[in-house]
């Protein structure tokens, strides 16, 4: 089926592009929405997890007898009840729901108690006696790599605690450096941070007749279903996972979690529904957030500023478990090439285990860290060779419809446009200068959905069914609205095709028992993939109804207009009845699989390919105080190549949310540990921006109309975060003349950089060196030849 | 969500009855006004009162009245929001009102009282944590343990004095009226505090703050500078309250109180002595910058921040110095504006 992106079969768009309120908005702002923790079932039991107090220890024994004696306690389970190992990625199934052999971070769950209320469950947990044999804990990348004496965190990672290594070379990097006129090296560090969703994780399970249903605040019901079936040893069809209306994910609800598995097991054992809602502190331990990443980058440019070669090294602090780690590692090297045409590129990455809460995907998964390093590094090169930093970038921008050196297929690309528009909008501010005032610029790009699923299969990535009957139009899709607005996208797409308004579409989403599969809300894939599936299903439904009406009217289908609730001269409902009389049950379906040729064919090529890339450019305007080191951000301009905005209001909301999160990461957010413990697992002490720190954001949307996106649409959920962080660092440099090569940029770091400069040293704060990492031999990949590079 | 443990809530009809209840129940009982400090701490197991004696509903604690000497008597149950929105108060005691305005967030200020604020618990990031967290790291002497995690050699707890209004009140020379079943007494606000993070209040546990008395502000102006990461919600990382007296163009007296850099607010008014005799104009026009730097340095000297709050302790000490300079300038500016 070939649908033109620009219009709907030559006709103008009616609801796509309109700034309409989101379909679920009223429930959320009036308190009507029932989130996972609002679920109440008769006979409900409450579950609490007993978590490790040790960062690294062998579990010698667990005595649950006195917990069972606590009044109100109904059941207690330990790792022995749930021995199966699992993990989101088939290559590192290194988790169990409850650890009974070894704990690997403070917060690692070891036992679970179900009781008539939370207080009894908590009392039950406190009555459990666990005997530990403490082991030496590993707290940093350097320590992980350099302490072979201590016991490895995971046996499979070996004594250096290396979870994953990657070494890839595309083109002849040495030759590239040899012809460069100027070479520069830099080292950067990005401190880890967490998602901080407003809603804590919550899951409720019910079991009956060998079936289990789980309601959870998850982003990926399909993957959770898959893991539950395997861990609980049930046929997949006996496990139903419903993604409850969501209070925020940002990547933190992408993994299958201990509490989700545990409530299912407890429901099966007790025959009663069981709920577990995490406390805020537990959310910090559950984490799976931004990896701390050390980065080293070396780039050679010719006299005109064109990149000849780049060598990028990363070392990720993965925390205690694998999670999405292999993908996270490769993401730190994959998307450098989607903004800059790098003719020869070498990437070496490593992820190490430490005894901290496991890291995983957070908005921008694995790419904000290298994007920060890359953009600041380019600023420094520009300064050194005396070229305007924007001009240096422009000379290296990728072109639309090309293939990168690492074989990523670029289609629509609005880099030039977002650059022009963001500079134009911020022109006045850039002109006005006062002491301590600074302006920074950066660009970035992000995927519209991962090209490959998490586990190997050839099924469509997204499927959609539309039924039309006396219940109106019902759209079934596995996609999960985590606040990014995917329900509104699906409703808008179906409404556009059927000549209705989004409010006319009933949605059944994120329910593995009722909806066809969608892989989940991660990698900014839903608008592109589920949107295309929904469009296909809806246009097929339109064809069915239009054909029936055309037959009745005795005209050609092309003469029937579909708009404003009418199909030809008939009301939509009348037309649907007519079609149902002729055809029987009206049902249509659509599905989406990414094209096969969007990436390369080398080991590691699974990470990076996407059917399209969004592009963003940011300008940050701030004042930095040279006495206190404090930074006040005045305004952020963000131009984003959205392909096409399906709902402009929702797109602007995502841009503002991305800028908000980026400023938090740039200026204050940090997942800091002390004595093996998370230093500040509370919303008061883990600092993120308040209203008062949030500046005005001017959003500029650029529509490049992607040939494969639904109506030309691309992603916005993650991309706009990326350029803001380096733009802040660049603006601080513009304001004070010093570089802070470590995020977050705190007052103390700024003062240290100023102090260094005052002492005649380099005006910089940041890591001094990059550790010795035993990277494996390079996998050498031949880049696409000229013919393949121009699509 | 963390849940509140069970407790009995008693609702006395008067301050006198509240005092009797406190005497009757002894150590099991605690006073509660807005509950914005106490209740979160009970959820985390930092405080374990079995009985709470409520004060928030008592009308007699919510009076604001002029006293005979031209000062003001404010009931301890007056909320921070009431203080913040009182324009007359802001003219007379700008430093005190500013301090109240910088406490936590609007919602918490609607509930939080000035009496509760004077008694707000000292803070430490080894202590302001859940029971489970504290158990994991090892309990400390402020609650459930016997050593100090920040300063293991210390014989006393070094938790941080964190009330914003206490230093502002001290700079004004304010007093509080304390009521217990044994009687009533009036003491300077400064006499409420000990330099001990664990036993930080010098009053008896059953003594109720009935009111705070601010002396007449004729010829005085005041200011408060709060250092923290964000513009709202955060507790002070350093706080500086300044009060200056000048009937005409020349400073006659000055007081400086610094907070959040020790376990009690520190009255460092001797450091203000060089300001006496300076003209407001010379101070503000930059002719006395060196003198001001000196004042700030000596005012901040006793500040001993430790690594138990947000940001770096060295930075907090630096910011205390800067805060003194800024607070002196602000108070001087207000005086100059008044004389003009
Ligand atoms: C997120 C957050 C941020 C905060 N930020 C700040 C801040 O920046 N600065 C700041 O100063 N505070 C802050 N607070 C603490 C608190 O909100 C305020 O100090 C508030 O003024 C306390 O008043 P309350 O009436 O709520 O006190 P309560 O919680 O009711 O009581 C606090 C203490 O005072 C005692 N008490 C109360 N009234 C009396 C009385 N009349 N006589 C004797 N004892 C009494 C109680 O027994 C208790 O020990 C914050 C709190 C939170 C939760
Ligand atoms: S200063 Fe020491 S004793 Fe006091 S709360 Fe902190 S760690 Fe505990």
Short description:
By secondary structure, chain A is α+β, with helices and mostly antiparallel strands. In chain B, β4 and β5 (72-75) form a beta hairpin.
Detailed description of the structure:
- The complex is a heterodimer of chains A (791) and B (340).
- Chain A has a domain at 7-33 and 460-592: Aldehyde oxidase/xanthine dehydrogenase, molybdopterin binding domain (Aldehyde Oxidoreductase, domain 4), CATH 3.30.365.
- In chain A, helix 15 (526-553) packs across helix 16 (572-583).
- With 791 residues, chain A is α+β, with helices and mostly antiparallel strands.
- Chain B is of the alpha+beta class and 340 residues long.
- Chain B has a single domain (59-119, 160-339), classed as Uridine Diphospho-n-acetylenolpyruvylglucosamine Reductase, domain 3 (2-Layer Sandwich).
- Chain B has 12 helices and 12 strands.
- Chain B has helices spanning 15-25, 38-43, 80-84, 87-92, 94-101, 106-111, 114-118, 131-137, 165-171, 280-284, 289-300, 313-339, and strands at residues 8-10, 29-32, 51-54, 64-66, 72-75, 175-180, 183-188, 208-214, 220-227, 238-245, 253-259, 266-267.
- In chain B, helix 11 packs across helix 12 (313-339).
- The A-B interface holds A 51, 53-54, 106, 118-119, 200, 277, 279-281, 627-629, 668, 675, 677, 679-682, 684-685, 687, 689-693, 746-748, 751 and B 1-3, 125, 128-130, 132-133, 135-137, 229-234, 310-312, 314-315, 318-319, 322.
- Iron/sulfur cluster (SF4) binds at residues 124, 126-127, 140-142, 148-150, 157-159, 197, 308 of chain B.
């Amino acid at each position: 089926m070939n649908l033109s992106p620009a219009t709907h079969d030559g006709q103008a768009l009616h609801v796509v592009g309109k700034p309409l309120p989101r379909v679920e908005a009223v429930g959320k702002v009036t308190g009507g929405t029932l989130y996972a923790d609002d679920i109440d079932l008769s006979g409900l039991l409450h579950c609490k997890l007993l978590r490790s107090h040790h960062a690294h220890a062998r579990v010698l024994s667990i005595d649950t007898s006195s917990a069972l004696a606590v009044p109100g306690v109904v059941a207690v389970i330990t790792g022995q009840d749930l021995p199966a190992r699992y993990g989101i990625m088939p290559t590192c199934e290194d988790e169990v729901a409850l650890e009974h052999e070894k704990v690997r971070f403070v917060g690692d769950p070891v036992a679970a108690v179900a009781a008539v209320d939370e207080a009894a469950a908590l009392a039950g947990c406190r009555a459990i006696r666990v005997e530990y044999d403490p082991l030496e804990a590993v707290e940093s990348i350097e320590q992980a790599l350099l302490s072979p004496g201590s016991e490895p965190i995971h046996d499979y990672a070996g004594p250096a605690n290396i979870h994953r290594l990657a070494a890839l070379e595309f083109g002849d990097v040495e030759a590239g450096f040899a012809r460069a006129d100027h070479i520069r090296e830099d080292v950067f560090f990005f401190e880890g941070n967490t998602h901080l969703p407003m809603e804590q994780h919550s899951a409720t399970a019910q079991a009956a007749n060998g079936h289990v249903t789980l309601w959870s605040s998850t982003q990926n019901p399909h993957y959770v279903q898959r893991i539950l079936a395997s861990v609980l040893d049930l046929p997949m069809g006996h496990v139903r996972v419903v993604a409850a209306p969501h209070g925020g994910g940002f990547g933190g609800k992408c993994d299958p979690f201990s509490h989700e598995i545990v409530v299912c097991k407890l429901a099966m054992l007790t025959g009663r529904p069981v709920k577990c809602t995490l406390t805020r502190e537990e959310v910090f331990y559950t984490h799976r957030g931004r990896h701390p990443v050390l980065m080293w980058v070396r780039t050679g440019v010719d006299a005109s500023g064109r990149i000849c070669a780049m060598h990028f090294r990363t070392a990720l602090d993965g925390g205690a478990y694998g999670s999405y780690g292999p993908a996270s590692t490769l993401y730190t090297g994959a998307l450098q090439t989607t903004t800059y045409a790098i003719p020869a590129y070498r990437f070496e990455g490593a992820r190490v285990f430490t005894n901290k809460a496991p890291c995983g995907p957070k908005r921008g998964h694995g790419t904000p860290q290298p994007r920060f390093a890359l953009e600041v590094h380019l600023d420094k090169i520009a300064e050194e060779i005396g070229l305007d930093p924007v001009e240096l970038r422009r000379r290296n921008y990728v072109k639309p419809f090309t293939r990168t050196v690492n074989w990523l297929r670029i289609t629509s690309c609005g880099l030039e446009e977002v650059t022009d528009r963001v500079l134009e909008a911020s022109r006045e501010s850039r002109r006005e200068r006062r002491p301590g005032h600074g302006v920074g610029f950066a660009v970035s790009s992000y995927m519209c959905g991962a090209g490959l699923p998490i586990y190997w299969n050839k099924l469509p990535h997204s499927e959609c069914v539309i039924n039309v009957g006396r219940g109106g139009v019902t759209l079934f899709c596995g996609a999960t609205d985590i606040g990014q607005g995917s329900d509104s996208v699906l409703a808008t797409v179906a409404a556009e095709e059927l000549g209705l308004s989004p409010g006319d579409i009933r949605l059944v989403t994120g329910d593995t028992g009722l909806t066809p599969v969608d892989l989940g809300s991660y990698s900014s894939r839903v608008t592109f993939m589920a949107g295309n599936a929904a469009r296909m299903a809806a246009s097929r439904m339109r064809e069915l109804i239009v054909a029936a009406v055309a037959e009745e009217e005795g005209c050609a289908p092309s003469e029937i207009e579909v708009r404003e609730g009418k199909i030809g001269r008939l009301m939509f409902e009348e037309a649907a009845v007519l079609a149902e009389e002729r055809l029987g049950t009206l049902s249509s379906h659509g599905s989406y699989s990414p094209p096969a040729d969007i990436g390369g064919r080398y080991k590691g090529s699974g990470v990076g390919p996407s059917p399209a890339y969004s592009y963003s450019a940011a300008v940050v305007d701030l004042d930095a105080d040279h006495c206190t080191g404090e930074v006040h951000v005045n305004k952020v301009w963000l131009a984003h190549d959205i392909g096409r905005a399906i709902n402009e209001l929702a797109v602007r909301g995502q841009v503002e949310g991305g800028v908000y999160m980026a400023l938090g990461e740039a200026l204050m957010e940090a997942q800091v540990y002390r004595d093996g413990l998370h230093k500040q697992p509370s919303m008061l002490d883990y600092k993120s921006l308040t209203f008062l720190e949030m500046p005005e954001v001017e959003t500029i949307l650029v529509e490049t109309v992607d040939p494969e996106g639904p109506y030309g649409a691309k992603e916005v959920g993650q991309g706009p975060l990326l350029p803001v962080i380096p733009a802040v660092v660049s603006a601080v440099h513009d304001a004070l003349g010093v570089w802070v090569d470590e995020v977050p940029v705190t007052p103390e770091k700024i003062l240290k950089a100023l102090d260094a400069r005052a002492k005649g040293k380099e005006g910089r704060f940041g890591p001094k060196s990059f550790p010795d990492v035993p990277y494996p031999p390079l996998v050498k990949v031949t880049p696409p030849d000229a013919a393949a590079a121009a699509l | 969500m963390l849940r509140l443990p069970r407790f009995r809530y008693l609702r006395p009809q008067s301050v006198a009855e509240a005092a009797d209840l406190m005497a009757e129940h002894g150590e099991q009982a605690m006073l509660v006004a807005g509950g914005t400090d106490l209740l979160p701490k009970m959820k985390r197991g930092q405080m374990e009162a079995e009985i709470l004696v409520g004060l928030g509903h008592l009308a007699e604690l919510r009076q604001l009245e002029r006293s005979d000497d031209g000062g003001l008597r404010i009931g301890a149950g007056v909320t921070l929001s009431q203080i913040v929105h009182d324009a007359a108060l802001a003219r007379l005691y700008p430093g005190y009102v500013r301090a109240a305005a910088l406490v936590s967030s609007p919602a918490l200020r609607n509930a939080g009282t000035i009496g509760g604020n004077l008694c707000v618990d000292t803070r430490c990031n080894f202590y302001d944590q859940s029971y489970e967290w504290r158990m994991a790291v090892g309990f400390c002497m402020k609650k459930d343990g016997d050593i100090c995690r920040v300063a293991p050699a210390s014989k006393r707890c070094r938790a941080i004095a964190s009330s914003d209004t206490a230093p502002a009140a001290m700079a004004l020379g304010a007093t509080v009226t304390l009521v217990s079943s044994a009687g009533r007494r009036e003491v300077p606000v400064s006499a409420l505090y000990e330099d001990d993070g664990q036993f930080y209040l010098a009053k008896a546990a059953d003594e109720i703050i009935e009111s705070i008395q601010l002396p007449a502000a004729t010829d005085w102006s005041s200011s408060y500078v709060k250092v923290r990461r964000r513009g709202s919600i955060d507790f002070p990382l350093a706080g500086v309250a300044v009060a200056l007296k000048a009937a005409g163009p020349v400073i006659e007296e000055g007081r400086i109180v610094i907070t959040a850099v020790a376990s009690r607010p520190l009255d460092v008014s001797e450091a203000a002595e060089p300001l006496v005799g300076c003209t407001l104009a010379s101070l503000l026009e930059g002719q006395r910058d060196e003198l001001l730097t000196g004042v700030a340095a000596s005012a901040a000297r006793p500040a001993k921040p430790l690594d138990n709050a947000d940001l770096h302790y060295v930075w907090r000490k630096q910011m205390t110095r800067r805060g003194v300079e800024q607070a002196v300038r602000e108070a001087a500016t207000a005086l100059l504006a008044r004389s003009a």
